[in-house]
Design brief:
76 residues; two-stranded antiparallel ribbon; 2 strands; 49% helix
Length: 76
């Protein structure tokens, strides 16, 4: 496993603390979020934020489609 490559996925780990790269081991309290998730969530809020499975309008359908696509991806 390329640890440096994995660290690059987590913007928060790019910080220096007391002159050393940040190391975060408290995952039982809060897990850090990779850039891929941050950008996907931000894009959702920018373009299609609405309740899923509850509306008959464009944004609700877009949100529902995105959720169902994510479920299919995880299931595979």
């Amino acid at each position: 496993m390329d640890v440096e490559r994995v660290r690059e996925d987590f913007p928060i780990l790019g910080q220096q603390v007391h002159g050393h790269p940040l190391v975060y081991l408290d995952n039982s309290a809060t897990t850090q979020v990779p850039e891929q998730v941050l950008s996907t969530v931000a894009e959702h809020y920018r373009t299609s934020n609405a309740n899923v499975h509850r509306g008959m309008h464009y944004l609700a359908h877009a949100s529902t489609d995105a959720l169902e696509h994510a479920r299919e991806t995880v299931a595979r």
